[in-house]
Amino acid sequence: xxIVDLVRLFAEPLSTxxxxxxxxxxxxxxxxxxxxxxxARMSGYAAAEMLGASPRLLQGPGTSMQQTRMIARKLRAEGxxxxxxxxxxxxxxxxxxxxxxxxxxxxxGKPLAFLAxxxxxxxxxxxxxxxxxxxYRPIVPETFDVGGMCGAPALFA
Length: 157
Ligand SMILES: Cc1cc2nc3c(=O)[nH]c(=O)nc-3n(C[C@H](O)[C@H](O)[C@H](O)COP(=O)(O)O)c2cc1C
What we know:
single chain, 5 strands, Beta-Lactamase, binds flavin mononucleotide
């Protein structure tokens, strides 16, 4: 089983969008190895459209170059980045996206891949919302496979 297979098993049922890339930060990298269904629902891009592309595909006219330079700097220096960016859906619509990029390290601390947890932000400032989802737009599953979940061994019972 490859690391992509493992991440797929973990990320496929999540309602948080996941983007996995290789560790090559030189243009045209990083290259996308996997995106989950929640990412497709948020961005409008099917996994097949993203595979082999760079996350720069999500950038557009309103994306701040200062921000993207900051991502590159942070990823090179610390191997991680956490911030809010302006991304664009496949329809061209802009959305604010909180992005937390972390490396997956092997036992010796060598980076194997980057994993980004991405959530659309609908409310950045002000009083906390009464909405239970707070400042994030929930990504609603198309179908929720309760049967599958219940059929799984009760590891955490
Ligand atoms: C896992 C991962 C996910 C990323 N997701 C986004 C994203 O959603 N939007 C974005 O603008 N950049 C994203 N990036 C950053 C770009 O891929 C790129 O690193 C950034 O534009 C800085 O490089 P550049 O200055 O060469 O463009 C992501 C990077 C990684 C490693």
